[in-house]
Design goal:
Helix content is 13%, strand content 32%. It is an alpha+beta fold. Among the domains are: 9-59, RNA polymerase II/Efflux pump adaptor protein, barrel-sandwich hybrid domain (OB fold (Dihydrolipoamide Acetyltransferase, E2P)); 93-122 and 151-239, Nucleic acid-binding proteins (OB fold (Dihydrolipoamide Acetyltransferase, E2P)), CATH 2.40.50.140. Strands 8-9-10-12-11 form a five-stranded mixed β-barrel. A four-stranded mixed sheet has the order 1-6-7-3, with helices on one face. β4 (27-30) and β5 form a beta hairpin.
Length: 246
């Protein structure tokens, strides 16, 4: 009896026999078995009745793609819940990340959470309610606390914001020390899966950039323009690449 397919797979995990299934995106065949090539949710595109074609096993990078595939293979009366978060960053994913290092040519960030359209719109509309798992405000508040900055950042997805990806205009005049500081919370979009170590993120849109930052005095600042934030206690202003407020 064939074993049940896993709902989530990790790279190298055996999914099923090649004699029963066909290998789809995110999988490969080795020794007559289909294995996962990437980590993510597993979906099966069932073959049509009386068709000689095999069902196709695929592994997606995001939950959103898996839900879409599952919804097409189920009846129209079945309600498929839409998750708020993706399992992995993908191209065009909107992410919230904490700046961990700023260099002359690039800033290194640690990705805290990957958003889809529903979570993104929820963040833009604070009047909507959120479940415990979808409380972006608490995630930001915890991440912005310096006491929570630890070696756990090394276990998160790492990404780079290159100097040319900070803003859309006057790229040659960008000074990264004036755009980001260590500990800032940044909203950005993934533009490349990069290499084995880093994703690549851009903040070159009005709604992207620093969303939370502390001043040199340690107080939470508020934005006053697209390139400046102010300490409400000391009144001191500091430069940032500021995102349009949620």
């Amino acid at each position: 009896m064939a074993s049940a397919l896993p709902s989530l797979a990790i790279p190298g995990q055996r999914l099923g026999p090649a004699g029963t299934y066909s290998a789809g995106p995110g999988t490969h065949v080795y020794h007559s078995h289909i294995y996962a090539s990437i980590a993510g949710p597993v979906s099966v595109d069932s073959a049509q009745v009386n068709s000689p074609a095999k069902s196709i096993i695929s592994v997606s990078r995001t939950m959103k793609k898996a839900i879409a595939a599952a919804s097409t293979s189920t009846s129209s009366t079945t309600t498929v819940p839409k998750p708020k978060y993706n399992t992995l960053p993908a191209v065009d994913s909107v992410v919230l990340a904490r700046v961990t290092r700023v260099q002359k040519r690039q800033a290194t960030v640690s990705i805290l959470v990957v958003l889809d359209e529903s979570a993104s719109s929820q963040a833009l509309n604070p009047s909507q309610s959120a479940s415990d798992n979808d409380n972006i405000e608490s995630i930001l508040a915890s991440a912005a606390n310096p006491e929570n900055h630890s070696s756990s950042d090394e276990l998160r997805f790492q990404a780079l914001i290159r100097k040319e990806d900070v803003r859309a205009v006057e790229k040659d005049r960008v000074v990264l020390d004036e755009m980001f500081r260590v500990g800032d919370i940044v909203r950005g979009t993934v533009i490349s899966l990069g290499d084995q170590s880093y994703y690549y993120i851009t903040t070159a849109r009005n709604d992207l950039g620093v969303v939370m930052a502390r001043s040199e005095a340690g107080n939470m600042m508020f934005p006053v323009s697209w390139k400046e934030m102010r300490d409400p206690v000391t009144g001191a202003a500091e430069q940032r690449k500021v995102a349009r407020p949620f």
